[in-house]
């Protein structure tokens, strides 16, 4: 298997993609912050499937300072480029774009921003002010540099995925956005680069998040309130989980009506701190009996 070509500058990336564009090959893109794991690998596999054997798959590795708030883990966020390249090679990635901050933000912090709007003010946006504005600006910049036909994001960051889809639609970017299923450990814990912060005891506590969501799925046949009660009951069993939010929403993250029709598809989302580590997770629900 051929190792991916590592590009660290805009010029290098443009040169590597020029031939693919001349030949009309499709370009698939997976933006990441590195510290790659099997969840990221699954996104790369989806990108390859979408562009075919003749297409080009690009993975970016960039820890974006604009989406970290004061007191968050920017400085300690894991940087594991050598190990990341091994995973990218295993998945048949063609190009890894790993730029510096100065290469992405030429001339300093952008003067033009992207306002996340109402969708960015709830859930994560309510808890992490400024996070989604920083995320959207870097995704928009990376889209402009890579100019992909298709970009793949994980459903674990469900609100992020929804905002990126909205941005692409509202700004007519002409990129197909694919949401890939959340990948989990054998015991249900959602794969996350931040899981490596957890010690053995904290990891056991973190399992209450996914257990709460699975409990909600099982109870959802009895209605949204039953699903939320089941999730809350599971989280109350945790000894060291500080919940930021636990909410059930429509699939577009809008509010559900008080009287939810049977068979309604919904989403349950949770965020919590386990020790000093903040984790998020979500699952789909079908409310009521079909």
Characterise the protein shown here.
The chain has 290 residues and is of the alpha/beta class. The chain has 2 domains: 5-180, HUPs (Rossmann fold, 3-Layer(aba) Sandwich); 193-287, Pantoate--beta-alanine Ligase, Chain: A,domain 2, CATH 3.30.1300.10. Helix content is 37%, strand content 21%. The protein has helices spanning 10-22, 38-51, 81-90, 101-104, 124-127, 131-146, 158-170, 200-219, 224-236; strands at 5-7, 27-32, 56-61, 95-97, 150-154, 176-180, 241-250, 264-274, 277-287. Strands 1-4-3-2-5-6 form a 6-stranded parallel sheet, with helices on both faces. It is globular and about 55 Å long. The model has no long low-confidence stretch (mean pLDDT 95).
